[in-house]
Amino acid sequence: MAIQDWIWLPFIFAWGCCIGSFLNVVIYRLPRDKSIVSPPSACPKCNKHIRFYDNIPLFSWILLGRKCRFCKTPISSRYFTVELLVGLLFLGLFLLYFHTSFIESIPPLLEGGWLVYLLHIIMLSAFVAASAIDLELWVIPLSICWFVTAAGLVISTVAPFIIDSAYIKDNMLFPLASPNTCALALGAVIGLIVSLVLLVTGLIKRSYESDETQDENTKIKEKQDETNPTPINFDDENFNHRLEAVREIIFLLPIFIFSFGMLLLTKNESVSSWWVKFSQYPAVSGLLGSIFGYFIGCGVVWGIRIFGTLAFGKEAMGLGDVHLMGAAGTVVGAFPVVIAFFIAPFFGLAWVGIQMFFKKIRQIPYGPFLSLGILIVIILHDYIIERFNMFFF
User: I need a labelling partner for 279 at 20 to 30 A (CA). Which of 12, 51, 188, 337 fits?
Assistant: First the structure.
């Protein structure tokens, strides 16, 4: 590695720690329905504003002796852990992509590799925040998932203008869709719009809807103390869980109907040739490929959620997990996100085994394990693509 490259590494690590510091703000404020922009950082106990020299990532936590300067309230080790973890993610991914041969499919940094790196650190950073919230409160704020989804859709659309689309397709750097998957994705979008219209107009009912419909953040605020949050137990709600699963199936039906309807339409001779040409424009293929990854990511988790709820008579997996994997699908694509989903249970089982020795658990936060599955898929990208090409081509 050249000397100038070594010089950049501390800055990359430091930048990651700064992002981790911001994520700590997100982790604390977002589920409490507070602005992540203002007011400035303050101690949650005494409300004294934190001075800039007391807000230096990693160092301030150590120098302050893990306590607030003013009221001496202990500062959670989560702050240090998140800053260090994100800093290591930034640095580790940079070294893995651009200074090792472990993932050879990533192009050089200045030849488009920076775009792959950027999208992946956006996703992983957001998933660190989502996982920390899920570990604490057993919910995943959907706004985090939507942020990653938006980033995945935008960058997948513009990526073919920066990296050759043939290279992207061969190495699955970003989602790119075939004419058939483009048709399925477009039909799914139309079906989703129809489902949302039916939901808004009241023709179909939202699942787990009480007399006063509330989103996850509102439920958190009502069921926990401001500074000492307790996880939400949705089993306390008086719901017929199998009926709620049926409502979700009804919501999903238009997505399936329009998706396969669009596929059949594009097979028509009068439409087929035009559709093949249009759908394979790089930007169109990138956008619809990312959308297809979103629906596959959502679908694999939602399917388990529905079947698990029908089988066991209680809510199995949360909708936050559905949106988390949908967001991941927009970034890594349909096939890798499915692989990540099947990797996640191994981490979950290990967690359950550890927890059983310390306390009785009724449920586990699954977002962190899904996030770890995504990280493994990213690290083993070349191996997974090689196996994919071996079995399907």
Answer: 337
Report d(CA 199, CA 254) in Å as an integer: 12
User: How is 206-266 classified by DSSP, letter by letter?
Assistant: PTT--SS---HHHHHHHHS-SSS-----GGGS---HHHHHHHHHHHHHHHHHHHHHHHHHH
d(CA 76, CA 19): 18
Lowest mean pLDDT among 125-139, 259-273, 376-390: 376-390
208-260 pLDDT, tens digit per residue, is: 876 444 444 444 444 444 455 555 554 545 788 899 999 999 999 999 999 99
User: How many domains, in total, are found in the chain?
Assistant: 1
The angle subtended at Cα 88 by Cα 120 and Cα 147, nearest 5°, is 35
- Domain around 326: 3-392
pLDDT confidence tier of residue 50, bands split at 50, 70 and 90? confident
| Cα gap 124→132, rounded to integer Å | 12
